[in-house]
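chain and backbone:
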Amino acid sequence: MGSSDRLFSRQRTVHQILGGGLAADVILWRQKNLTAGILVVTLAAWVVFEISGYTLLSLSSSVFLLLFTILFLWAKSAAILNRPSPPIPHLHISEEVINEAATLIRYHINALLSIFEDIALGRDSEMFIKVALSLLLISVIGGVTDFLTLGYTSLFIVLTVPALYERYEDCIDTYALKSYRKLQLLYIRFDAVCISKVRKWILEAKKFR
C-alpha cells in the first residue's frame, strides 16, 4: 500500500510516529511483560480505589505520610545507633530543565491561543467544528464517569488501540479513508449551505454600519 493510500498520507510506520523508543515498544506490545505489568498494576490500583473508597488525594497523602515517617524515624535511629542514614540521593532540579519545560509549556500555550483566536475571529470553520465536537465528547464522557475510571480507560485505549491498528493497518486505512472522503463531502456541503450564508450575513451587516 502506497503512502497516498495511508491515513493522512503518512510515510512513517506507527512505531516511528510514536517515537521509536521504549514508549513506542510498550504501546505496541513489543515489551509484552512490561505492557501487561502496567495494565495489571493500573487495574489493581483502580480496583483498590473503587473498593476502598479512597480518593487519589487521600491515598497519596497517606502514602507520603507513611513514607516520610519511616524515613524520619530511620534517620533518627541511625544517628543514635551509629548506623548509615537512609540512602536518599540529592534531589535537585537544574535551571536548564526548568527553562526547557517552560519553553515547551509556552509553545503549547501559544499554539492553543492561536487556535482560540482563529476560532473566535471566524477564520477556521473546520477547526471550530473539531473543537466543538471534542468538547462535546469530553462533556458527555465527564457526565457518565469519574476521573479515575476515565484515566484507566484512557490508558487501556493507549495500550490497545495502536497495537490493534498496527496489526490490521491496511484494512483500517482503507475503510478510514473512505469514511474521511465522505466526511469531506459532507463538510463542503455544510460549508456551502450554512457557513457561507453566515459569512454573507456578517459582510452585509458590516456594510450597513
